[in-house]
Write a structure and sequence with these properties.
The structure is a homodimer of 456-residue chains. With 456 residues, chain A is of the alpha+beta class. Chain A has two domains: 282 residues, 2-Layer Sandwich (BirA Bifunctional Protein, domain 2); 91 residues, Anticodon-binding domain (Rossmann fold, 3-Layer(aba) Sandwich), CATH 3.40.50. Helix content of chain A is 42%, strand content 18%. Chain A is built from 18 helices and 16 strands. Chain A has an eight-stranded mixed beta sheet. In chain A, helix 7 crosses helix 13. The two termini of chain A are 47 Å apart. At the A-B interface, helix 1, strand 1, strand 2, strand 3 and helix 4 of A face helix 1, strand 1, strand 2, strand 3 and helix 4 of B. Chains A, B: It is found in: Cytoplasm.
């Protein structure tokens, strides 16, 4: 019983400072979502197992945390399954629920269940934890928050324009300036696949192309050939090896390259619309970049693909992403609902802000002032002031036990409380308070009104 | 696959309005906690199974949701257990983690694990969901939030004073006026048990006494005798059958009644201190009531016991509670840490506020204004205004697709959006916007600056 307790691997305790900082990030994202007209929903932490299974591929199914049925869950289990010791088969018999693996499938389930209450297009955001039985490693946890915004029921490209500006405004508000909003389109990738005549090699192609900066044109070509892409095909897309310039210049190159592909050309036009409207609106601190190597979510995205690169000084990779998917709710029987959504990577954003020292001074859990405990009578006298300060919105605590003054000051100091109030017989008879600023050591005797004024 | 999806029994989806209202309650409680010097922590949703088991009694152990181990969890299981189909024995072999059942045990585990980083007394608050495999019924769910504040490492009675005033201030801020803060003390209950000479009958005694209003003195006495309490013992505490008057008058009765009990007398003095200091401070809208029938948490509380009664016009019972426990962290090997804490019942408070119509008008998820979509050119013109409004903090959305104006107005109306903006060729050439208030139908043509001014 008395052995030192621990927590499951891949999970975390959050200290007061960490909670305050995480809440600051989440509040800023939340305000961004709401200003852009998104509405919050919340779904249960666990879903019926059959809602989740089969939605994330075989590997995903394995990583879903299943919840054991309550009570005598073995009583109805087929004995042959027990005898065979087949874990996979037994799971379905002793588990009916599982912790959600992401927020997208629960959202699709929500939309289908509540379709008669919802006015489409439906703009929802959701900020809740998800769980994955992944092997834990640096920056990868078994419990983590996702912060998602999606629109469902509209094919309008204005949604893509909105998401680009939303990313810009939220990162600007967080002080994370200079993020790169990478934009691509699934249809452009399909066009490239068409042109190189090898749609099954698309991932190999984009992975190799992404290494251009590191291994140069010859290196990339060698890798492509090694992966089985024909030299002739590579030659057809040679424009991509010199894929520089402005958004508009890149678009022009793609127009040429994909002229023979109907789908590719459609992708170019979609990107052109988004690029043009975003430029007219103007981004506050982010940069928009057309990146044809961006191939995330290739299996489900059907239009725009987004990814957010951290500011260049930080080596952290992606801190957000998303895209358009044409049939999110089809898995639950509601057809033809186009959706588009983005996600903010809370843990990564936290690391970026920590590294760049971007958390405002005021974002911490410390109280503003502590009243010292000089005895019962003094405390009793102090309580009126304590409550008036709180009613005025000042975070105020009191040292609960009578202790040496030095110890009490040390306590306030360790906790980062900037002010202390002392009350002795003199203060009580004059109806005053001694306010001490701990950093400077400066002390002033003040009235209650002055005290509130100083600390508010 | 296409069958209509559902959610596990006892769980809930929350709509945008419900999330907005729940967040309003939680924000208000959070501000209260912080103004009183409490700091937030968060712990993982699941704990190691052995952290939780044995802490909530046999019934509690049954109601804990266990998580199935990942991978081939049966491979190491003893075959005789499988053959015996003993669910209870198998659980420990195939499950190492479980969803938290409350926030108190994880808090104790946190304190012990992080004792070297914590400066005591430690005032923490925590607002996170907990899970119980209880039979679902009206107002009882399998997933629900707890909102707890505790102080650990201080025996000072000022903590009790603080919690009474904290309850008062939070319910006042929520607009829930007239709650009753019921106060009792475990030592008084022990004193009564001593006086009636039947400590094993204490629960029966308080349950019967609690029915005084309903079944009268004779009824209560009959029930007590039926439960095996001696008539002579009942006579010794007859003062409790006329237990009315002010806080001070009730205390006086208890002083007499418990004069022979050292522990009971100590309980009276503790209550007297809290009552006196609370009265000096003054409660804004709550009432303090000494209630000797309050016997919640009899197994773990050692001092003060709190319970919050909803305003009398609402028949809802307890909407919060707490108490002092002398050895919270002992179960994890850290001795002599006295703690005291309270909890707000989020779901019940929600019901009270709904019934009394206390949610402010502004607490909903609706946007303030929607820009109609009159075509691509008009949208493109509108976007500057859309973004300026958002940058000014106004929740602004746009109708993403070109559709009949009537349909677009209907959409805004259904969603409770109070204003709409229309842009046509005239507005564009004059650099203006037509602002329509949907309720009155009133339309005005305004400049961008006026638009922001009107909607801010």
């Amino acid at each position: 019983m008395a052995k030192k307790p621990g927590i499951p691997k891949g999970t975390r305790d959050f200290s007061p400072t960490e909670v305050a900082r995480r809440q600051y990030i989440m509040q800023t994202i939340r305000h961004g979502f709401e200003k852009f007209g998104f509405h919050p929903i919340e779904t249960p932490s666990f879903e019926n197992l059959d809602t989740l299974l089969g939605k994330y591929g075989e590997e995903g199914d394995r990583l879903i945390f299943k919840i054991l049925n309550s009570g005598d869950y073995l009583s109805k289990v087929d004995e042959t399954i027990l005898e065979s010791k087949n874990s996979l088969k037994l799971t379905n018999q002793i588990s009916e629920k599982a912790l959600r693996y992401d927020l997208t499938v629960p959202f699709a389930r929500y939309v289908v269940m509540h379709q008669n209450e919802i006015d489409f297009p439906f703009k929802r955001y959701q900020m809740q934890p998800v769980w994955r039985a992944d092997r834990p490693q640096k920056g990868r946890y078994r419990e983590f928050y996702q912060c998602d915004a999606d629109v469902i029921g509209s094919k309008s490209l204005w949604q893509e324009v909105e998401f680009v500006t939303l990313y810009d405004r939220v990162f600007t508000a967080l002080g994370v300036h200079g993020v790169t909003i990478k934009l691509n389109n699934r249809k452009i990738l399909s066009g490239i696949a068409e042109v190189i005549g090898a749609s099954d090699k698309l991932i190999d192609f984009t992975v190799a192309l992404d290494k251009l900066d590191k291994i140069g044109e010859d290196g990339v070509k060698a890798e492509m050939i090694e992966k089985g892409i024909e030299a002739e095909a590579i030659d057809k897309v040679k424009l991509l090896f010199n894929f520089t310039g402005t958004f508009e210049e890149k678009l022009e190159k793609l127009r040429q390259l994909l002229a023979t592909s109907e789908e590719g050309t459609k992708g170019v036009e979609e990107l052109a619309f988004v690029g043009k409207e975003v430029e007219k609106i103007g981004l506050a601190t982010a940069k928009l970049n057309l990146d044809v190597t961006l191939a995330r979510g290739l299996n489900y995205y059907t239009g725009a693909i987004f990814e957010i690169g951290a500011p260049e000084t930080v080596k952290l990779g992606s801190i957000g992403g998303g895209g358009r998917y044409d049939d999110l709710t089809g898995i639950f029987g509601l057809k033809d609902m186009s959706g588009v959504g983005i996600s903010f990577g809370l843990d990564r954003i936290y690391l970026v802000m920590e590294e760049l020292n971007l958390f405002p001074e005021a974002v911490n859990a410390a109280s503003k002032v502590m009243f010292l405990n000089m005895g019962e009578e003094e405390m009793s006298y102090s309580m009126q002031a304590v409550m008036k300060l709180r009613d005025a919105g000042v975070k105020t605590e009191l040292y609960p036990d009578k202790a040496k003054v030095g110890k009490q000051f040390q306590f306030a100091d360790k906790k980062g409380i900037p002010f202390a109030v002392l009350v002795g017989s003199e203060e009580m008879s004059n109806n005053k308070f001694t306010l001490k600023e701990l950093a400077s050591g400066e002390q002033t005797v003040v009235s209650l009104e002055e005290l509130i004024e100083r600390l508010k």
